[in-house]
Structures
1.
Amino acid sequence: MANRFNKTNSTEWDDTKGTAQAVLHGDLNDTIGDTTPPIGTVIGWLADFTGTPASLPDGWVLCDGSVLSDANSPLNGQTIPDINGDEQFIRGVSGATGGTGGSETHTHTHGTSSPKGNGGGSLDRFSTGGTKTTTSGNHVPEHYDVVYIMRVK
Amino acid sequence: MTLGKWDNNGDCNFTDDTKNDSDDLNNTIGEATPPIGSIVAWHASLTGVPASLPDGYVECNGQVLSDADSPMNGETMPDLNNATDATSRFLKGDSTSGSPGGGTITDHDHSITNWSSTAGDSPTHYIPQGNNTSDEQELPPYIDMRWIIRVK
């Protein structure tokens, strides 16, 4: 990829100005297209970090559930996922993207037993079996908040 | 894209100095794009997203990379997308990269301490017993995306 525009590396190079411009322009677009994340890419952005520019480059939007209004984007009119508002992690799938799930909390179930007295009989006021579900507990893993953004054009 | 290193008074004049301009362009692109080995998420199924990846990116599906132009040629890409190992993965920061982990549903018990009951108590008490009988994985809120990696 490097030195793709190097005159000595280009078999298509022509020293006439017009052809040279055409080759360079095409190579430039190819190289940028090959190395930059594709349209639809989602990456984390440290928006509130000191020194981070306040605005996004043209071509990137917040993943905030908005309907995209940009005639120059192939995603024009699409609803951008609300990864930030829904406070989601990103999970990898080889199938369809965009599905959601999971939760911040969970409960689970344990069996129960009845304690026995010295003589082997059941004590009063204990259940004699069945299952018991725990109270709800938070299980969000260790994390660091970022603002997710998407390339749209 | 801003070509910050393009220093030719805004004009591109193809003279014998062209090679320098080319290097500046290459440097600018190289400095502004994520490095080779970068992993980003890709919303492949969103309407309007181009169906194919750029030439320098592949999906992280556990495949062996066959690309003579990539320094990773012949390497097995990580499977982060539930393609071969039935595992949809999150990414986690660490000082070294490449180790999978997590996903194990651990057994655990509940205990009772300093607990007493006297005659006349009205509640029914339960003694937790044995392991967690629920076997579902407990996932945080998530959205499914395709992990892709820049390979050249």
2.
Amino acid sequence: MADTFKIVGKSFPRHESIAKVTGQAQYTDDLEIPGMVYGRILRSPYAHATVRQIDKSEAGKVPGVLGILLPQDVPNRPFNCSGNPPSPMLIKDERVLTDHPLYVGDRIAAVAALTKEACAEALERMIVKYQPLPVVLEIEEALREGTPLIHPELFSSNIFKKLESSQGDVERGFAESDYIFEDEFNTPAVQHVAMEPVSCICHYMEDDQLTVWSTSQTPFQERRVLAELLDLPENKVRVVKPIMGGGFGGRQQIHNQHVGAFLSRLVRRPVKIINTREEEMYASVVRHGSVCWLKVGVRKDGRLAAFHAKVYLNAGAYCTHTPIVLGAQSRKFQYRIPHYRYEGYGVYTNGPIGGAMRGYGNPQLTFAREVMMDRIAKKLGIDPLQFRVMNHLGAGETIPCHTFPLRSCAITECVEMGERIRNEIERREASLHKKAKVSEAWGVAFACHTSGPSNNEGMSSSLILVNDDGTVNLLVGSADIGQGCETTLSQIAAQELGIDLKDITVTSGDTFSTPYDTGTFASSQIYVAGNAVCLAAQDLKEKLCVALAACYHTELEMVRHEHDHFMIETGQDKKISLSFKEGVAKVMFGAKGRILAGFSSFKAEESPLPFSVCWAKVAVDKRTRTFSVLHIIQVVDVGTAVNPEVVKGQVEGGISMGLGYALMEQIEMDQRAQKPSSSDLLHYKVPTALDMPEIHVAMARMSYEPTGPFGAKSVGELPVVAVAPAIVNALSIATGEKINFLPLSKVFMPKGRSQIKKESQ
Amino acid sequence: MISKNSFKYVAPDSIEAALEYLLTEKNVFFLAGGTELLPQIKHGLMQPSLLVDLGKIGSLKGMTTREEGLFIGAMETLGNLVKNSQVNRYVALLGQSALRVASPQIRNRATLVGNILQERRCLYFNQSEYWRQSIAPCFKLGGEVCHQIPRSRTCCALYYSDTAPVLLALDARVEQYDGRKFKVTSLQDILLSHLHGEVEKRFVTGILIPYPGQGTWARFIKQSVRAAIDFPSLNAAVRYTPPVNGRGPVVRIFVGASSPEPLELKETTDFMMTHLSRLSELEEEVKARAVKELKTKSSLVRETGISLNAKKSSCYLISNILEELFMALNSERLV
Amino acid sequence: MTLLDFLRDEIGLKGTKKGCDSGQCGACTIIMDGKTINACLVLAIQADGKEILTIEGLSSGGRLHPLQETFVEEGAVQCGFCVPGMILSAKALLDEKKDPSEEEIREALSGNLCRCTGYVKIIKAVQRAAALMRT
């Protein structure tokens, strides 16, 4: 499908790469604003405490300190920090600064000083007297009778949200089942570990205007929340997103920007606050840890009959995203199922804040589901791939709880492509292990995700300004967080307008100059922003047609855009063909001159699902319990791949994140210290280049999503989801053991493929 | 963070001058590679008043073949060891273990001596000042408690050096300078005093590794959650030197990351030595003894990244190495 | 003051990044006297008299180093934060070995974390740069 397009479907290098490889790209901490000073936040070292007393006098005497904020110096009204469109579901339970910290890292006070050293010293000299209080860290604990409530002022239970979603009647479904499977699964909290820490510079100017440069996935939501907190109208708040070093959902919320804004208002200088890696690890945001209880009913012939899931998510101390995560989680069941019931529970604890992370609830439940699917297939004696395929929904059918049917689904093509790759691997690779006590096995898992928010709240807009030489400036509110959407959106614009990619310059993520976009989350860029860009380009073409018609004194119906050219039929049987640039040159200046711009507003009414199939091959020494992941294959259906290498890059990166989730990542809570011990990148382990298996990525070619720009669906989050269950399924087969949890390092010892290779020589 | 006022800094160009600082100034730390010390300073774990940078002392660098063995200067980096032809020729195992330490960047600064004399590590100790604020200071920090084992009267932190088991298996010795002369002691003695907190002002000037005998068989393994940048969850060095000229064979097994000091599986090696004549028939027995001895002598504590259960299963790795040794013995490559 | 802070704050060379300040991520990798180091683990004063290469110094006269070219062309650059350190680690390898194996490349890059790419296109970029540099 993609072969028919000139620009969409081609792997153009990203436009900002040269700046990045030469060190010229400016990330937030690289920016220096005149008069800039530094800020640091004093955070609670206790997971739960009250602050009895704060003495800031000594801190204030440190040379270079300009101002100190205490809880009484900032508004006390609670808010919700998440970068989502406003919703009553988003409970406002958090404060800018608090004297009753509810998790390790909760913000107590803040300092602004001329130098980073002065900030650090001032923090050390702040005398804070805490009264530690009982701490609740785990879901089970939080749900137990008699456990203290985290937010007694809001709820009479630590469950602050219950979300139910169903179709059919699961009890009837189980009654009609020949086999019933039931089990409970656990996944840990994990951290995004984007290489760039959360960073912001906040400048509150004399005329009550606030400018914030921040690592933001959602500049427009940040603007809204900050405007509310500072009692400013939105036109006086500007949020700018510089080049960003990753996000993965972690920047889909406000972290320090409010504190920075208040500090700046206090000291009347721009204030830069950069998180330390320790603050990133447990005082910013994590993926919700989960407990998933599943009950699945199936018929003898292999058809699924009923699915009942109860999922408890550890939200930590504040609500932030949780209700939306539950909703998103409920809408990812990709198999035919007459009876489906999802119950999701958001649970408060004094743990790190569970928020948005790549996959947004999907990895936890899909892990449980896909491990279960393998057990069912085994019991029924059906090949695990075939079992899934026979139950999988197809185009025209509807995912439980979705409002629209699938319009594209290339799952069988994905399976075929992956199986070809797998057979090729098996053909060329003799067993890496000559030792008898090492067993090898392949495991498989399916996943789906979304293109844009599955609650259909995604909105985007785009403005295309035409320059007098016929090049264009593309303005999008959508924030490129490193995934390359500035380039892919430019490709969409170029394709639609019929111009070269080099004739487009893109600006993104500045609330003063780029039009509204709900945010870079829920894999929105290609689908939501891409559709907006397409519409803006169409709008521009229509306007150019109108202008050309006026210019040539002909009817509008006589002007058409075909094959990248504007065809004008003047009277006298004359047909004129103009390129975009020639058309612009014709109409822009002169007596009837006009300035051209294209604009769009796009509200996503559907959120088409991309799909993936993932295989993993593992080798395990059962005696020493060491294992290695040798190969991962992932084939994705993303409709048209606007930029195939960008898509592949997303899949490859998603695989490494999924691998970490499966093998070694966990935010660990230490019971004795009553706080997370995963405070740095040594305690918390993400895969290095030596830990990676051999990776094989492919994309289905026959898929076309009719509601997507040029048939495209999004890919951003999808590739993380199926990896962990594929690995666990493989390990289960190789060891014969049931595995209900992540990470595998809890009972097994991971070993990089390079090590195995070295040792087998 | 390290600011301009954190400490004074000097970089002498002679051993004598460096030792002078150590003996006369208060709260002096030697700065070798800095890859352990700087993070400790940033975390507020070490608070030197004076840092003496050894980097300009030329005589601490270099490797020489002495009569008694290969001498490695105190400031030789792990990165140099990996590539060095003399190391590869005489003590290749050392280069292999050095290669498994941390990352290339760290190996380019970290010294062998620094790796051996590293501080024992613990999830309650290796944390920032901010993190440790909410718990009582432990023994290492002048406090009176061990957070791992509250009943304990001493620090239970584990010792994680990757090069130490190899050097111990090779009977390495440590050269020190005391102001008047250079003195050579066994590595085992130095480690014992270093690891049990004896505060002795020592100036280690190098490591001397006796040439292993002809036909020496040696293996090093390191098990860690990740293949790079990680401390071991278990490491071990096994060395067998066949008998020669009336001198009996030498067998050594050292295991690290399992206790506050590197463990010598002496009972197992003693057993092997007393049953030399029929050693090749006793493979299963030796392996079982080694695992049992390791389990008995281990004193595990909680660690991040790996559960106690997973860690306990790792002990069977020693069995794997011994299996390789027996294969070599039985193939009569070592007679 | 560490060499990293000195480069970024005193000299104003922002290309070298601070990812963890503890030597655990490699984002601050630079080349000092021909060897890669973590600039956050070296005091500024220790660099006195030494030759330092940061990412800004890699291209010359407007021409990109082959590694910079291949990183761009192979799509090895996503968010880019790890890239300056990653490229310098690769450069140090290629300065020493003209034809490294895949394992040797992974070993040379093992101290540089990347969260975006899974390292796949990075390895490919290094291999292609090595090939370009051999011709």
